[in-house]
């Protein structure tokens, strides 16, 4: 009886210990602007999972498209503590529909296809851009996720600063299989491992011309793990994948079970067959944004030789191939120091390309304006502006002595743009009346196009204006001075004489009309048939 109870108690005890090892918590940080979130949300009618880590929310956003497809990768971030990519990016690990923490036993399996995942990628990208106030983000496809990320970039390059392919899938042709075969045969021969050599031969077909085609991909990959060139360098599939899932703390016990269920489910979807028979060297030969590829020096799952070849062949504004030492298929976690250095270099190279024509100063001004409008002037700092622009913390000091000098530059920049538009509008107008109408039209249109400027000038920073008409104040806000002069010219041209008080009332009326319309035009939630880009003159007279 005692023995029987002990036998029953052992699995219960194991399950209890496993549950204690599975709290479902992710990395957290002490920095005030950090972010650490794990959640599931609906994307295009299906649940999608997200892990978000970052030490500074102003850093560029990096969307990591999970491998497989269908395999969540945050498990490696949990397992390999030296991986600190979140110091340089806000890293978003995406579990696409019905996988990982988004698994659902009632999943609509028929909806898991390439078209839907690409639509999901677009929606996720827009969500991240809006949430983190970014014009663009970085996207990194890892292994099987590179199918999705690469195609997403091809169809919407305007959403991304750059594409990063880590363990990039290039082709599933016999070239790929032949490189894998040659590597495994060499390793097993050197070991004198006749058993695995026989298994290797059983798993392939020898083609005319000396190439190889594998018959069973999963057997082939298991042998690759045995040879040391699989997911983690010199680790079996159990050591490299299964054991990290079992022991990680980022999933609850239920989430770990669902992780495996979702991974197996993805192998039976239409997506799996849609990703067969591909060769991006032929189908995607040009990418309209910078592209970068990262491979482990011992990666024979997605052979680094083919990735380097593809990098050399693809047309792109800029590109580079990084081969990471002491790593196989997962360099970000196997050799995090070298891989994170490569990713910092990618960020630096992209920003250098973006700013090499001398527009960093303006980019810093634009970033500062966004921060002020989002969080208030008190939250503005040169360090935050640098992070948002993706440059070093020291870079802004080449342009601005301190925060106050940056604020002055923002005011000057906005004012100069505003005045240029208004002066062009009134130029060559035959009368003061026509000039005032033209100025009013451009006043509204300018702020409709640039609502951030309106908020900054009249909501955050404020401007200086003297409405009294007994004299001209030279330090008044330049656009108001222009309006004042046009109004006085209007009185002169029409032979009108008014007291200073009457003039002040007239000016307030004129300014109120255009300023009120501008404030309405800046609110996205207000719907109207009025064309703010070409205002009906009846609204201005």
Structural class: alpha/beta
CATH names the topology of the largest domain as Rossmann fold
Shape: elongated
Quickly name the level 1 CATH class of the largest domain: Alpha Beta
Q: Please state the average pLDDT score.
A: 85
Strand fraction equals 5-15%
Number of domains: 3
Poorly predicted segments: none
Number-wise, the strands total: 10
Helix content: 40-55%
CATH architecture of the largest domain, by name, is 3-Layer(aba) Sandwich
Task: Describe it.
It is built from 21 helices and 10 strands. The strands form 2 sheets. An 8-stranded mixed sheet has the order 1-2-4-3-5-6-9-10, sandwiched between helices. The protein is elongated and about 110 Å long. A hairpin with a 2-residue loop joins strand 1 and strand 2 (46-54). With 541 residues, it is an alpha/beta fold. The chain has 3 domains: 35-171 and 248-354, Alpha/Beta hydrolase fold, catalytic domain (Rossmann fold, 3-Layer(aba) Sandwich), CATH 3.40.50.1820; 175-230, no CATH class; 401-539, Tetracycline Repressor, domain 2, CATH 1.10.357.10.
Key words describing this protein structure:
541 residues; alpha/beta; Rossmann fold; Tetracycline Repressor, domain 2; 3 domains; eight-stranded mixed β-sheet; two-stranded antiparallel ribbon; 21 helices
């Amino acid at each position: 009886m005692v023995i029987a109870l002990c036998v029953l108690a052992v699995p219960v005890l194991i399950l209890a210990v496993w549950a204690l090892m599975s709290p479902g918590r992710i990395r957290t940080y002490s920095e005030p602007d950090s972010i650490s979130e794990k959640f599931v949300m609906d994307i295009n009618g299906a649940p999608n999972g997200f892990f978000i880590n970052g030490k500074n929310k102003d850093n560029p956003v990096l969307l990591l498209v999970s491998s497989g497809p269908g395999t969540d990768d945050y498990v490696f971030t949990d397992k390999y503590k030296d991986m600190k990519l979140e110091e340089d990016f806000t890293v978003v690990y995406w579990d696409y529909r019905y996988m990982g923490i988004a698994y659902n036993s009632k999943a609509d399996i028929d909806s898991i296809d390439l078209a839907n995942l690409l639509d999901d990628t677009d929606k996720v990208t827009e969500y991240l851009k809006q949430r983190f106030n970014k014009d663009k983000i970085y996207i990194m496809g890892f292994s099987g996720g590179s199918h999705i990320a690469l195609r997403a970039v091809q169809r919407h390059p305007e959403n991304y600063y750059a594409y990063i392919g880590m363990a990039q899938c290039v082709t599933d042709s016999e070239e790929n299989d032949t490189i894998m075969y040659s590597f495994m045969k060499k390793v097993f021969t050197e070991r004198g491992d006749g058993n695995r050599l026989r298994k290797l031969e059983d798993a392939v077909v020898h083609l005319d011309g000396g190439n190889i085609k594998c018959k069973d991909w999963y057997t082939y990959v298991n042998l690759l793990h045995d040879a040391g060139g699989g997911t983690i360098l010199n680790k079996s599939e159990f050591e490299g994948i299964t054991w990290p899932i079992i022991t990680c703390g980022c999933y609850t016990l239920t989430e770990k079970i669902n992780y495996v269920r979702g991974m197996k489910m993805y192998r039976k979807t239409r997506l799996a067959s849609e990703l067969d028979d591909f060769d991006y060297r032929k189908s995607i030969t040009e990418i309209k944004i910078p592209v970068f590829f990262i491979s482990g020096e011992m990666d024979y799952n997605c052979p680094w030789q083919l990735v380097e070849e593809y990098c050399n062949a693809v047309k792109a504004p800029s590109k580079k191939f990084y081969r990471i030492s002491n790593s196989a298929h997962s360099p970000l976690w196997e050799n995090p120091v070298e891989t994170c250095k490569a990713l910092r270099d990618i960020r630096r190279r992209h920003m250098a390309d973006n700013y090499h024509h001398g527009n960093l100063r303006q980019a810093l001004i634009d970033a500062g304006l966004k921060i002020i409008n989002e969080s208030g002037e008190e939250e503005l700092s040169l360090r935050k502006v640098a992070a948002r622009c993706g440059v070093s913390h020291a870079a802004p000091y080449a342009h601005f002595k301190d925060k106050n000098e940056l604020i002055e530059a923002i005011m000057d920049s906005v004012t100069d743009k505003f005045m240029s538009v208004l002066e062009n509008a009134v130029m060559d107008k035959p009368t003061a009346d026509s000039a005032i109408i033209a100025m009013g039209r451009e006043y509204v249109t300018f702020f409709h196009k640039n609502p951030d400027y309106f908020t900054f000038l009249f909501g955050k920073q404020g401007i200086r204006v003297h409405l009294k008409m007994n004299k001209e104040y030279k330090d008044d806000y330049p656009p108001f001075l222009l309006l004042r002069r046009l109004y006085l010219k209007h009185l002169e041209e029409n032979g009108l004489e008014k007291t200073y008080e009457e003039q002040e009332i007239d000016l307030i009326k004129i300014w109120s009309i255009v300023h009120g319309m501008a404030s309405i035009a800046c609110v996205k939630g207000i719907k109207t048939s009025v064309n703010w880009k070409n205002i009906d003159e009846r609204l201005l007279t």
